[in-house]
Q: What sequence folds into this?
């Protein structure tokens, strides 16, 4: 088989490539907008990264030339600044001016009574407390601990605890929790 001259092979190859590209043209035209948008987005992101790098380098240089002052605006207050704010000795309960926070986000983990470090929880005399109170050590339970024990208790025990709570401390979150559990248990 005779080989065609180099120039003829080049022209035939170019003509076939042009024909194939012409056939792909409808699909290529559809892809152009996405390709262009992708390339522009890439270019913009690269430019933003370069600008951010320049700003960081500028900040570092300015910090070396003019070290920042460790001044805090007079309107800014932080927990470390408040001498009265502290945590209790074991670090588990937040204290505010010597008292446990029993409202808001801390209510779930409190017994519902403000306590100081020296004060013990209020308990009723053992002789008047129902058996279920002593059995589950109700007087020391937080709201979260009581909630965890509710599924184990029967309706009569829940009613006894609700009555006991009303007679002793009358803490609204505890009474609400017990009443809601009684309602759900009796509805079943």
A:
């Amino acid at each position: 088989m005779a080989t065609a001259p180099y120039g003829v092979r080049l022209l035939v190859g170019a003509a076939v490539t042009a024909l194939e590209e012409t056939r792909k043209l409808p699909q290529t035209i559809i892809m152009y907008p996405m390709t262009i948008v992708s390339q522009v987005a890439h270019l913009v992101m690269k430019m933003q990264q370069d600008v951010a790098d320049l700003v960081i380098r500028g900040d570092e240089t300015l910090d070396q030339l003019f070290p920042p002052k460790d001044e805090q605006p007079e309107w800014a207050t932080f927990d470390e600044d408040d001498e009265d704010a502290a945590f209790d000795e074991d670090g588990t309960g937040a204290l505010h001016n010597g008292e446990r926070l029993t409202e808001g986000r801390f209510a779930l983990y409190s017994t519902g009574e403000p306590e100081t470090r020296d004060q013990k929880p209020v308990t009723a005399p053992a002789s008047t407390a129902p058996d279920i109170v002593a059995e589950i050590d109700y007087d020391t339970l937080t709201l979260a601990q009581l909630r965890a024990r509710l599924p184990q208790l029967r309706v009569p025990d829940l009613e006894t605890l609700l009555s006991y709570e009303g007679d002793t401390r009358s803490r609204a979150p505890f009474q609400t929790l017990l009443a809601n559990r009684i309602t759900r248990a009796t509805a079943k």
Q: What stands out?
A: Strands lie at 86-87, 94-96, 99-100. The chain has a mean pLDDT of 80.
